[in-house]
């Protein structure tokens, strides 16, 4: 009888970590014949759990890393516990020791994968610095290494094939490489369409891999992908072999909250997935008795067993089932066409209402959605929000769409050649939230947000249906201006997009003696609401003539071997400086040619690229055909001019759904590289701050992810340590403010408050009069400190 995950139930939960459990592994054996469990967390600690009957107790906590634990490996031959961290180091502990035997340093960024080496006392590691290293430690404690270089992005996965005497690595460049013991590249496997997160050697010289494309791939001895296993609906983070059930049985886990089991020979999924109460199941390992261990974003280590005697009692199982039911309701339930997970949590009630009688729907931890009304300076509970009332369209007075009832179902014409798209809307909903959901669901450009929202405002009001509107004194939380509503006028707001913040009005250069006049136009604010920010910020304008002149100057200095092109290529590329560039394949090929220029000549090309990627279809072609992100991200370590343009390019990419998806898939690598920037002009400071601000907007408009919020907060904190430009400081403070309004708000506040220097700087910025142009810094500071 084939094994099945249906036979597994929760055995126990190991509670002790205060944040995400990012790594689990099987540790040393106990004298009684059991096995310890190792767990590593975002709380920077590694814990050793020893078995006691069917339970496990915390026997040891290791706290020598300066940042979160990303991976744990137990080197059985030496009885070493090896921990990898975001601090770019590897700590090696002897069993039961509190202090590391050795700390391996040398990687330039997060170490995110570990495995045993081919030689005794050796390890292989993978890092965000795009390399893998094979470390050898002598009996005397001397350390040597071989670097495996060839990936174009972070190395997320490593494995050792002992029988073949080879290493395997997988990376964010979607590639899998084989290497010999000397660090020479032997073979390249292509097939994954996104970041490779795991590789595992199997019998008969076969290989299994998984990744962000939500697919497990089985490769034969000849390097051919002969089987794909689909079932996960989001990133796959980890996999492990369960040899007790059979060499062909593998388990996997990922961002879809599930643990799954597979027969890799047949490709069949074995049983139904086990859903976890948390969003991300980061890591999985299998004990010799067949039990399965997972680490989850809710901070809990869980053990699942197929043996009834080791399964938890009824009370514990019921509590777990309740958590799973809550998670399922968060995934599946909708109210009025809006997913519950898209609604704000109780933290939304910490912000004052904008007018008497304003209503707000709030999602609670038990899965319920309640309606609150702003009356007499407080949010007062109105009652539970229920689903559609039932009945037919004629009996209910509502319109039906996809089986649900709405007050309105609009027909929206997006294209002359396509049928209208249905836009459902219920009274009392925030038009901008509904518009954002509509844009994501139909893969429309982010630039449509205000247009769609205003369409709702206009057409729902035309039916004489009362609905919440922005009051006369409302100010957009990003620009500070009144939001445009058809039929209204706004003569008091100065445009923020008429002067290019890099080129200024008179010259095209990488520096300026008059930096203050060439940075972004300052926004005018007459309201006091500075966050949450709803609208993505882009760097839009450009002096096409001066960019073309600079490219011609550089082109004249190049030889044919270095990439000199004809003028027609430069003229094709300059089309991307249009306000609404078209998807032109000739221009795209021309841009790809110029991106191969030497790095010292690339900044005008990158300037054009950051304009081109605002257009979602152009972004798709550039990234799918030319992997432009893989080309430009390394420039974050290049010249100041190139750094500036790449950060702006990433910032603009975040303005649409496809761009956000691809940037998010490489976010740890990107934030790590942006974090290496410790000085720069006002323009660069503003670009970095705006990049982080756009990232936080993505978290306020969707379900906030703890990992993303943590990384972004860390990045903003590092920026505030050196940034001096007031506009950059203002946007950084807005970014923090955004995150305080999400479900990760308390974690963000804790991170910021723990850094004394940044808290002192925030108080100084808040309490020091900044003058008329930057009084907004004082205001946002007051709001931010009040949230703390």
UniProtKB/TrEMBL annotation:
Domain PUL, first and last residues per copy: 529-787
Sequence ranges of the WD repeats: 14-59, 104-145, 148-180, 229-272
A GO MF label: ubiquitin binding
Cellular component aspect of the GO annotation: cytoplasm; nucleus
Gene3D superfamilies xref list: Leucine-rich Repeat Variant (1.25.10.10), PFU (PLAA family ubiquitin binding), C-terminal domain (3.10.20.870), YVTN repeat-like/Quinoprotein amine dehydrogenase (2.130.10.10)
Residue ranges annotated for the PFU domain, each copy included: 371-470
Pfam families per UniProt: PFU (PF09070), PUL (PF08324), WD40 (PF00400)
The UniProt record lists the keyword Cell cycle: no
Subcellular location: Cytoplasm
Top-level taxon in the UniProt lineage: Eukaryota
KW Repeat (keyword) present: yes
Family as reported in the entry's similarity comment: Belongs to the WD repeat PLAP family.
Protein name: Phospholipase A-2-activating protein
Record organism: Drosophila erecta (Fruit fly)
């Amino acid at each position: 009888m084939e094994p099945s995950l249906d036979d597994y139930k929760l055995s126990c939960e190991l509670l002790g970590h205060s944040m995400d459990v990012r790594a689990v592994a099987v540790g040393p054996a106990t004298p009684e014949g059991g096995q310890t469990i190792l767990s590593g967390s975002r709380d920077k600690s590694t814990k050793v759990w020893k078995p006691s009957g069917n339970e496990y107790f915390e026997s040891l906590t290791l706290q020598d890393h300066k940042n979160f634990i990303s991976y744990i490996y137990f080197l059985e031959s030496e009885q070493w516990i090896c921990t990898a961290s975001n601090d770019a180091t590897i700590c090696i502990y002897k069993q039961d020791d509190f202090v590391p035997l050795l700390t391996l340093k040398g990687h330039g960024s997060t170490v995110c994968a570990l495995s045993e080496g081919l030689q005794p006392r050796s390890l292989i590691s993978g890092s965000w610095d795009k390399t893998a290293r094979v470390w050898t430690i002598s009996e005397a404690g001397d350390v040597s290494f071989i670097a495996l270089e060839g990936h174009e992005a972070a190395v997320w996965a490593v494995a050792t094939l002992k029988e073949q005497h080879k290493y395997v690595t997988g990376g964010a460049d979607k590639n899998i490489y084989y290497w010999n013991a000397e660090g020479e590249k032997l073979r390249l496997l292509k097939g994954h369409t996104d970041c490779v997160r795991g590789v595992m050697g199997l019998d008969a010289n076969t290989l299994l891999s998984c990744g962000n494309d939500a697919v497990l791939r089985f490769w034969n001895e000849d390097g051919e992908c002969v089987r794909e296993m689909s079932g996960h609906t989001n990133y796959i983070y980890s996999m492990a072999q369960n040899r007790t059930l059979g060499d062909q049985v593998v388990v996997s886990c990922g961002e879809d909250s599930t643990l799954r089991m597979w027969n890799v020979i047949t490709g069949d999924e074995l049983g139904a997935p086990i859903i976890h109460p948390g969003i991300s199941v980061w890591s999985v390992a299998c004990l010799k008795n067949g039990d399965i261990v997972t680490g989850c974003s809710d901070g809990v280590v869980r053990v699942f067993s197929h043996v009834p005697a080791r399964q938890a009692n009824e009370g514990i199982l019921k509590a777990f089932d309740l958590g799973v039911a809550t998670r399922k309701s968060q995934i599946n339930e909708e109210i009025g066409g809006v997913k519950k997970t898209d609604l704000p949590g109780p933290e939304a009630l910490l912000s004052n209402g904008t007018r008497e009688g304003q209503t707000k729907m709030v999602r609670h931890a038990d899965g319920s959605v309640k309606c609150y009304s702003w009356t007499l300076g407080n949010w007062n509970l109105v009652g539970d929000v229920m689903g559609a009332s039932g009945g037919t369209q004629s009996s209910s007075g509502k319109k039906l769409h996809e089986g649900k009832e709405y007050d309105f179902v609009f027909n929206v014409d997006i294209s002359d050649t396509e049928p209208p798209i249905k836009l459902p809307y219920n009274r009392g909903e925030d038009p901008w939230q509904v518009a954002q959901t509509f844009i994501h669901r139909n893969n429309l450009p982010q630039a449509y947000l205000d247009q769609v929202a205003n369409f709702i405002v206009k057409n729902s009001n035309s039916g004489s249906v009362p609905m919440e509107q922005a009051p006369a004194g409302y100010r957009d939380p990003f620009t500070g201006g009144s939001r445009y509503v058809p039929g209204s006028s706004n003569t008091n707001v100065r445009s923020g997009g008429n002067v290019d913040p890099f080129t200024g009005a008179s010259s095209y250069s990488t520096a300026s003696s008059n930096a203050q006049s060439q940075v972004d136009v300052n926004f005018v604010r007459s309201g006091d609401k500075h966050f949450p920010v709803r609208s993505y910020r882009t760097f839009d304008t450009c002096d096409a003539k001066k960019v073309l002149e600079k490219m011609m100057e550089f082109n004249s200095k190049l030889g044919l071997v270095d990439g000199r092109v004809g003028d027609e290529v430069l003229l094709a590329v300059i089309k991307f400086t249009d306000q609404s560039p078209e998807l032109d394949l000739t221009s795209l090929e021309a841009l790809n040619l110029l991106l191969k220029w030497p790095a010292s000549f690339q900044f005008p090309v990158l300037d054009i690229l950051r304009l081109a990627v605002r257009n979602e279809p152009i972004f798709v072609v550039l990234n799918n055909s030319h992997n432009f992100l893989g080309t430009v991200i390394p420039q974050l370590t290049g010249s100041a001019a190139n750094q500036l343009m790449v950060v702006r390019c990433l910032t603009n990419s975040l303005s649409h759904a496809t761009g956000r998806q691809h940037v998010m898939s490489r976010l740890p690598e990107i934030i790590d590289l942006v974090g290496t920037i410790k000085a720069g002009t006002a323009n660069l400071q503003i670009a970095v701050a705006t990049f982080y601000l756009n990232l936080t907007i993505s978290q306020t408009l969707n379900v906030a992810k703890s990992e993303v919020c943590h990384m972004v907060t860390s990045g903003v904190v590092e920026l505030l340590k050196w940034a001096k430009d007031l506009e950059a400081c203002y946007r950084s403070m807005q970014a923090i403010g955004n995150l305080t309004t999400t479900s990760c708000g308390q974690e963000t506040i804790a991170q910021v408050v723990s850094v004394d220097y940044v808290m002192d700087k925030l108080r100084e910025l808040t309490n020091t009069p900044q003058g008329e142009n930057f009084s907004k810094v004082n205001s946002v500071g007051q709001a931010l400190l009040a949230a703390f």
